[in-house]
């Protein structure tokens, strides 16, 4: 069984309109992949910056996966939530990125999107009433099947720093270009 | 059947330093010092080097407030392990000391020790920059009390920041950054079949 180690940090969120953000992340993979050690999901603390418009999470990732097939290469899914002063939280960004397919150090920038408000009342509610619309089925994040008819807006970026260590892939004849 | 003795563990030697702390609008207190701690997973064993350290009290009073506050604190450790899971991290607690001698927390910073040597030209030193995160108080009354008593909140166990689920609900503010320069030397990983580079 070949093994993949993902060691890194979810560094920060930039270019979001809201200052206080937290991020829920998860790493999903296909049926042939098994988690050996580590946690595949987590939630960061709420973070804001004193001077700039960014949020530093610095959430460490340490995941050890083993696999019998290359199908179902793992993906990192992120959902960014904003918090207001009344402690209400609503999603302001959905995004995902595949874990890179070559060993070494990588810096990923995950561009995110959020659900667009449908009319005037919805946009007032998004600004003042504690949040816009959210996705009811979060598997829309990584599947392209039922996305038609969903209106979305672009949102900020999440910057992730990953170091990947692969093991025993050559025994199975897998090459990385 | 050949009986070749293979190494069952690899060793990781980290040499480097905590270079400096930079605050864009100046630090909140005059003197700044750090306490660092090295944490690793259950498979890792510290072979040599100190696990904790305390730096000197440094300041940039005589110079521009924007200048980096230089610590130059050496970090030299060697770890032995059987698996890269639980890669060691360094957790630094940054404290400030006002002229009157009162010490308060300025924030926490943590990074993984470098996994790869960096592919960069030789003139540029490998630097890792970590943001300094300061815990924020949950309510306005607590803010007022802390301002009156001049005592900032501290996390009871800063290792909570390294956990994936325990820091849910915690609120932090980032201000300032800590710069590290660290080099890695590894031994024995290739024999175990690890693909460290393309």
TrEMBL record, chain A:
- Keyword flag Ribonucleoprotein: no
Q: Name one GO cellular component term.
A: MKS complex
Identify one Pfam family in the record.
B9-C2
Any GO BP? cilium assembly
Superkingdom, according to UniProt? Eukaryota
Q: Which UniProt keywords apply?
A: Cell projection, Cilium biogenesis/degradation, Cytoplasm, Cytoskeleton
Q: Which family does it belong to?
A: Belongs to the B9D family.
Return the protein name: B9 domain-containing protein 2
Q: Say which species the protein is native to.
A: Drosophila willistoni (Fruit fly)
Automatic annotation (TrEMBL), chain B:
> Where is the protein localized?
Cytoplasm, Cytoskeleton, Cilium basal body
- Keyword entries, A-Z: Cell projection, Cilium biogenesis/degradation, Cytoplasm, Cytoskeleton
PROSITE patterns per the record?
Answer: C2_B9
- Which GO terms of the cellular component aspect does the record hold? MKS complex
| Highest taxon of source | Eukaryota
Q: Which InterPro entries is this protein grouped with?
A: C2_B9-type_dom
Pfam families reported for this sequence: B9-C2
**Cytoplasm recorded as keyword:** yes
* UniProt keyword Ubl conjugation, yes or no: no
Q: Which GO terms describe its biological process?
A: cilium assembly
Question: Which family is this protein grouped under?
Answer: Belongs to the B9D family.
Query: Mind telling me what this protein is named?
Result: B9 domain-containing protein 1
Organism, by scientific name, is Drosophila willistoni
Lineage of the species this protein comes from: Eukaryota, Metazoa, Ecdysozoa, Arthropoda, Hexapoda
């Amino acid at each position: 069984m070949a093994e993949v180690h993902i060691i890194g940090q979810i560094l920060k969120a930039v270019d979001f309109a809201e200052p206080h953000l937290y991020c829920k992340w998860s790493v999903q993979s296909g049926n042939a992949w098994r988690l050996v050690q580590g946690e595949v999901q987590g939630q960061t603390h709420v973070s804001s910056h004193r001077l700039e418009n960014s949020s530093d999470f610095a959430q460490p990732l340490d995941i050890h996966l083993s696999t019998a097939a290359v199908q179902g290469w793992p993906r990192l899914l992120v959902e960014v939530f904003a918090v207001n002063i009344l402690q209400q939280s609503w999603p302001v960004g959905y995004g995902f990125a595949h874990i890179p397919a070559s060993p070494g150090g990588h810096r990923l920038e995950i561009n995110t999107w959020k659900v667009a408000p449908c009319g005037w009342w919805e946009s007032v509610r998004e600004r003042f009433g504690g949040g816009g619309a959210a996705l009811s089925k979060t598997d829309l994040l990584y599947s392209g099947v039922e996305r038609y008819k969903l209106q979305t807006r672009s949102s900020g970026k999440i910057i992730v720093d990953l170091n990947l260590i692969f093991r025993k892939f050559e025994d199975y004849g897998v090459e990385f270009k | 059947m050949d009986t070749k003795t293979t190494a069952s563990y690899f060793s990781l030697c980290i040499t480097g330093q905590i270079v400096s702390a930079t605050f864009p609008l100046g630090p909140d207190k005059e003197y700044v010092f750090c306490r660092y701690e090295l944490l690793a997973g259950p498979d890792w064993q510290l072979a040599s080097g100190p696990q904790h350290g305390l730096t000197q009290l440094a300041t940039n009073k005589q110079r521009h407030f924007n200048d980096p506050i230089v610590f130059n604190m050496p970090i030299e450790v060697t770890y032995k392990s059987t698996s890269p899971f639980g890669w060691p991290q360094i957790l630094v607690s940054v404290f400030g000391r006002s002229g009157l001698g009162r010490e308060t927390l300025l924030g926490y910073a943590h990074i993984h020790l470098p996994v790869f040597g960096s592919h960069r030209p030789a003139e540029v030193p490998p630097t890792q920059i970590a943001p300094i995160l300061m815990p924020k108080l949950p309510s306005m009354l607590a803010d007022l009390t802390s301002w009156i008593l001049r005592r900032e909140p501290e996390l009871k166990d800063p290792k909570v920041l390294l956990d994936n689920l325990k820091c849910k609900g915690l609120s932090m503010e980032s201000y300032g950054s800590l710069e590290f320069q660290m080099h890695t030397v590894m031994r024995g990983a290739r024999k175990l079949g690890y693909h460290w580079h393309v």
